[in-house]
Amino acid sequence: MRRRDLLRAAALFPAAAWLPRVGSVGSVEAYAVPFARGPVDDDEAYWAEVRRQFLITDGIFMNTGTWGALPVSVLEAIEAHMRAFETVFHQMPFDAHALRAQLAALIGAPAETIAFTRNTTEGMNVVARGLDLRPGDEILLTTQEHVGGRCCWELVAARHDLTLRMFPPPVPAPSEDALFDAWTSQVGPRTKVLSISHVYFSTGAIQPVRRLSAWARERGIITVVDGAHPPGMLSLDVTDLGCDFYASSPHKWLLAPKGSGFLYISPQWIDRLWPLVASGGWDDLALKGDRFDHVGTRNDSLLVGFQASLAFHDAIGTERIEKRCRGLATRLDAGLRAQPGVTVVSPADPAVRSAMVSFTVDGRASSEVIRRLWQMGPVRVRHVAENNLDYVRLSTHIYNNPAEVDRVVGMVGEIAGST
Ligand SMILES: Cc1ncc(COP(=O)(O)O)c(C=O)c1O
Questions:
Q1: Region at 144 (left for phi over 0; alpha for psi -120 to 50; beta for the rest)
Q2: How confident is the model over 210-236, as pLDDT tens digits?
Q3: I need a surface site. Which of 47, 60, 173, 186 has the fewest CB within 10 A?
């Protein structure tokens, strides 16, 4: 986006005028967003102010599960860094160390265990391709994995004669216990890896990663978590989760630039995992997570944007964001369940429900429901059509509000009731 477009956006959205100018790049403070930090959880005026930090205009955006919308401050940070870079003589520094530290604090990881990737798909591939698995070793996953967390295993299984074992998880997931039991009852003597989506892309169900990791560790089984969704949506502490690997896409709920991802490699693996891409330093174990970042020239402006999105997130606060996102999802869930002809496939138990709610409408293909929502809203949603599923998925984030949720529920009710 050009500066004049940003200025036009600032005029359209007055609050953007008090967004910080990006003067110096590299410190968290450079992107601090001056939100009030008071007790404003139910204050719609506060959330309306938050909404004004985005360029979302004409409709209801409920597909953060695919990618989040960037706050204007993040766009500005990227643009400022990129423009300065191209002056050649006035380039702004980028402090990877500061970004690592900031991200580490958010996800509960030692900074040196983090590698920067482009997204979850890449992170999952780094792990699958970097482990020394042997013919006959079994990788266990569910039939509801996203291709970004599944295909890396298909590839290594085909190449190294491994066994992929996929089982159907309970849908709707009745409880954490039921999910835990579903996994542990499938583990056999050859199982070497559990590849677990922390939050299913299909239904938003939250998996009991902490319990599964502890259980697996006792049996010498590796836990690889496809964590595309939780950062920016749920409080996260990967050390406490106890998993071996955690791959994520901050471009979703953390509202970071598309193309900025991360992989957590636990201390017990940081010196043992083979890097996917080798360049200078690939075998220098002292580099820790940075050993995996030597992938050739990359676009640091995106990482600067990532840093700005972390500052935006911190300005509001993880707890408040989680409460808002999940609170809206609970409202959506209740509204949809009250509509005749609508079946919610996401968990009824709020402990297992995230900020994504999926449903079907009796007698209607989900593609038709989605087309009608687009015509009526427009409402932007996700069609879950993979793995022989046919759901409509709605995501709720901080730029959504109760009025939008109620409008969408009303539209779904109308679609379900129409002949
Ligand atoms: C659970 C899950 N895993 C992996 C991915 C892939 O993410 P990315 O395209 O950012 O690699 C997605 C994307 O929606 C997802 O929902």
A1: alpha
A2: 999 999 999 999 999 999 999 999 999
A3: 186
User: Which of 3.30.360.10, 3.40.250.10, 3.20.20.70, 3.90.1150.10 would CATH assign to domain 320-417?
Assistant: 3.90.1150.10
* pLDDT score, position 58: 86
Please, are residues 282 and 294 in contact by the beta-carbon 8 Å criterion? yes
Say whether pLDDT at 37 is over 90.
no
Is the CB of 125 inside a 6 Å radius of any atom of ligand 1? no
Q: What is the CATH number of domain 96-306?
A: 3.40.640.10
What pLDDT, on a 0 to 100 scale, did the predictor assign at position 36? 53
Q: Which position has the higher pLDDT, 17 or 33?
A: 33
pLDDT at position 57, please?
Answer: 87
- Ligand 1 within 6 A of CB of 197: yes
Q: Which atom of ligand 1 is nearest to the CA of 121?
A: 11
Domain boundaries, the chain: 96-306, 320-417
Q: Tell me if 248 CB under 6 Å of ligand 1.
A: no
Probe residue for ligand 1, chosen from 141, 142, 146 as the CB with the greatest number of ligand atoms within 8 Å: 146
